[in-house]
């Protein structure tokens, strides 16, 4: 009997929670605290000039001990393409602005 593949939503939820290891960061250690690195999916807000952008679903290695994030070269190239406008935004959101 053939096994049913896992549901994508369940897979991504487990990945975000750090419950799935795809293997890229296996045996890698943090250069700052020597903690182990786990794979996660994060949202990355960035200020570009006078505007803000949100890059969603970014695969990243995160140190379990100190929280330092590590990005692969291809992820950084995709982020750069997004910020420089070479990729079309999927959607736009509005946000509240506060001053202190």
Describe, in short, the structure shown.
The chain has 100 residues and is of the alpha+beta class. Helix content is 20%, strand content 27%. It is globular, with a radius of gyration of 17 Å.
How would you describe this structure to a colleague?
The chain starts with 7 loop residues before the first helix and ends in a 17-residue tail after the last helix. 20% of the residues lie in helices and 27% in strands. By secondary structure, the protein is α+β, with helices and mostly antiparallel strands. The chain is built from two helices and three strands, in the order H-E-E-E-H. It has a single domain, classed as Ubiquitin-like (UB roll). This is YgiT-type zinc finger domain-containing protein. InterPro entries: Znf_MqsA-type (IPR022453). It comes from Candidatus Infernicultor aquiphilus.
Number of strands: 3
Give the number of helices: 2
Low-confidence stretches: none
Q: Overall mean pLDDT score?
A: 84
Query: In the CATH classification, which architecture applies?
Result: Roll
Taken in chain order, the helices and strands follow as HEEEH
> How large is the radius of gyration?
17 Å
The third-level CATH topology is Ubiquitin-like (UB roll)
| CATH C-level class | Alpha Beta
Largest sheet: 3 strands, antiparallel
What amount of the residues lies in strands? Answer: 25-35%
Termini separation: 62 Å
């Amino acid at each position: 009997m053939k096994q049913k593949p896992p549901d994508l939503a369940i897979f991504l939820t487990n990945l975000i929670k750090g419950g799935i290891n795809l293997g890229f960061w296996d045996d890698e250690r943090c250069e700052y605290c020597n903690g182990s690195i786990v794979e996660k999916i994060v949202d990355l807000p960035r200020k570009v000039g006078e505007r803000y952008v949100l890059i969603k679903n970014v695969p990243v290695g995160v140190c379990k001990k100190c929280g330092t994030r590590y990005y692969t070269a291809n992820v950084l190239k995709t982020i750069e393409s997004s910020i420089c406008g070479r990729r079309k935004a999927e959607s736009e959101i509005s946000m509240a602005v506060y001053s202190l």
